[in-house]
Design goal:
315 residues; alpha/beta; Rossmann fold; UDP-galactose 4-epimerase, domain 1; 2 domains; 10 helices; binds nicotinamide-adenine-dinucleotide
Length: 315
């Protein structure tokens, strides 16, 4: 039985990662400081193979047992969170990643970094292959997140090349599913909350900017395939089917059978115009590709989360 550390394990993706690893018969040690995550996301876990440790990863940590895998997911991830926590976001990307890479080195564990499509910034290449270096504004408000992740990637490769740590980098593209927070500002939970409350759906700009949405189960499968491979270079994990924000809003209205209308609001600073993963490497090197299409994923999200949680009642 492998022992896995999941940082950010009380968050959206991290809690799904804990569920998946436990159901695959692995031990899980979950680290989280509950900044943007919640105990509600892990309260259903009853397994004796699960251990939760409340800890801020910007501080050093010690574990007195063997570890096989480190899934490093801890970081504020939605624009609302990292704009509220700019210094913390930079610190968790730097100090936090240092601490986890140091631990992986000490334990001879395979380290998997949760990076992001945001390392490509507002891309000038479309779709984005891993070989694209990106177009990021380092001093804009989003720079705290984008550059923290770019630094974390550089650090990961340095630990690999110079310190011999067994590392992997997953560039996660927009992912959705149950346990996203209704007010975290990301498009899918916002539209679901608004549609389920029959309120207007707020689309930024003219809604022609595109995104690709990956269902959470597909994303977690990608992380595990990466962990089980011997790949060290970054790999995009995301759904290449591209939607405009307007199409997404219309799909959410259709799936929820809502009578909401669509309204338009100002575009946030440095909001990328396009976002679509080139997943050729994931297919070739991991045999991975997404399976869940948007409508089905939205239906499952609604069933699993329940309307109360999606509209934020009881938070
Ligand atoms: P989330 O906010 O739900 O989860 C992040 C978790 O990290 C939270 O539980 C939070 O409390 C924890 N955390 C933050 N700072 C910490 C610290 N200093 N010490 C310990 N724990 C800390 O976000 P998410 O959407 O689940 O994202 C998880 C990871 O995936 C992040 O690294 C994010 O950058 C990456 N990612 C997510 C998406 C997506 O679409 N969800 C896209 C790209 C990348």
């Amino acid at each position: 039985m492998a022992t896995c550390i999941v940082t950010g394990g009380a968050g959206f993706l991290g809690s799904h990662m804990c569920d998946h690893l436990l159901s695959a018969g692995q031990r899980v040690i979950c680290f989280d400081n509950l900044d943007t995550g919640s105990l509600q996301n892990i309260e259903h876990i009853r397994s004796a193979d699960f251990r939760f440790i409340q800890h801020d990863l910007t501080e050093p940590l010690f574990i007195d047992e063997p570890v096989d895998f480190v899934y490093h997911l801890a970081s504020p991830a939605s624009p609302i969170d990292y704009l509220r926590l700019p210094l913390h976001t930079l610190k968790v990307g730097s100090y936090g990643t240092h601490h986890m890479l140091g631990l992986a080195k000490q334990k001879r564990a395979r380290f998997v970094l949760a990076s992001t499509s945001e390392v490509y910034g507002d891309p000038q290449v479309h779709p984005q292959p891993e070989s694209y270096w990106g177009h990021v504004n380092p001093i804009g408000p989003r720079g705290v997140y984008d550059e923290a992740k770019r630094y974390a990637e550089a650090l990961t490769m340095a630990y690999h090349r110079q310190q011999g740590v067994d590392t992997a980098i997953v560039r996660t593209f927009n992912t959705y599913g149950a346990r996203m927070r209704p007010h975290d500002g990301r498009a899918i939970p916002t539209f679901l909350r608004q549609a389920l409350q029959e309120k207007p759906l707020t689309v930024f700009g003219d809604g022609t900017q595109t995104r690709s949405f990956c269902y959470v189960d597909d994303q977690i499968r990608g992380y595990v395939a990466m962990a089980e491979s011997d790949v060290h270079e970054p790999i995009n994990i995301g759904n290449p089917i591209e939607f405009t924000l307007l199409e997404l809003a219309e799909t959410v209205i259709e799936v929820t059978e809502s009578r909401s209308e669509i309204v338009f609001e100002a575009l946030p600073t440095d909001d990328p115009q396009v976002r679509q993963p080139d997943i050729t490497r994931a297919k070739q090197l991991l045999g991975w590709e997404p399976e869940v299409e948007l409508r089905a994923g939205l239906q499952t999200t609604i069933e699993q989360a329940g309307v109360e949680r999606l509209v934020g009642m009881g938070d």
